[in-house]
Input
Amino acid sequence: MTSPFAAHRADLTALAAEDRRRALASRAGADFASNDYLALAGSYALAEAMTAGLRLGLPAGSGGSRLLRGNHDEHEALEAHAARHYGSAAALFFPTGFAANAALFATLPQRGDLVVHDELIHASAHDGMKLGRADHAAARHNDAQAFDDRIARWRAEGGTGTPWIAVESLYSMDGDRAPLADLAAVAARHDAVLIVDEAHATGVYGPAGQGLAHDIAPSENLITLHTCGKALGCEGALLCAPAIVRDFIVNRGRPFIFSTAPSPLMAWLVRQALEIVANEPERAARLHALVRYAELRLAKLGIPASGTQIIPVVIGDNARTMRIAAALQADGFDVRGIRPPTVPHGTARLRIAITLNVGEREIDAMTERLSAAMAAA
Output
């Protein structure tokens, strides 16, 4: 009998031949891999907040979707707090950033609209666009003029709907920032909606950790997404937008309507994390200082600075990338290799994330081992 999984096995074999087969690995060693930028995930501050939530009797599970019995006062309290914090008219809490992006792109752009997205936009946005009704097209990375030209061409070809511009404020594999002011100008010129995924900027940049889009907010044509599982140390995501957007997703967003609501206890914890970040700006200040230190050390190896806490070391070859990563991990430094399709072909890399889970001593030691591993690989 032919195995029903023969095609799957062949696909995995092909991935292995290209040094692209993935496997889960337990966390070990000094943290140069996580998105826990402010070291909040395992902090005493969040542990205390969790304990306080349990003492209040907040349930771990919601028991249903938000439109049934799953809606809890803590969801509403978090959303009201987040709207004030991020300067939006309304907010909506999702269990993950992936779910929020999928719901947004599957629901909001309508038939006859055009979504122009950065060519390096996250996979969750791509999946949402595949589920949606609007046409979509890629624009050259971080090139505001490319977005402008693509929308102008669409209009010239008879496009009459709403254009949507989709970008990340800080890209997770390159560590570079989007030209948000220029993109906001493009959006205003074309009556477009600008969607900014702040996943890797939330908590780290802007006043009180409001993100990189704070300079262009508030705006009726701006939607921002703030994930809670990175610098905030929790889980979930907050979609911040005009009130009509929240109302429309509650009524038409299938990923929202038909999903069990996030944990009320987690909603409470996210609210406390927002308060911690806002009231302790020294956390972000320490991180920025540590990033500058790491950039100086890595510059001695010819590794260019990204200007953010995400520092890519582009190797190119998949196998060599993984050999270097394995050597670092064997010596106690959790640095992960990133291969296609997460990054473009020929740009396999080490993704070095600087977090407050390490200090200057760990950065010094990791840099020395990286130099030796790159020479030997």
Q: What stands out?
A: The mean pLDDT is 96. Residues 282-299 form the longest helix (18 residues). Residues 25-43+281-376 form a domain with the Aspartate Aminotransferase, domain 1 fold (CATH 3.90.1150.10).
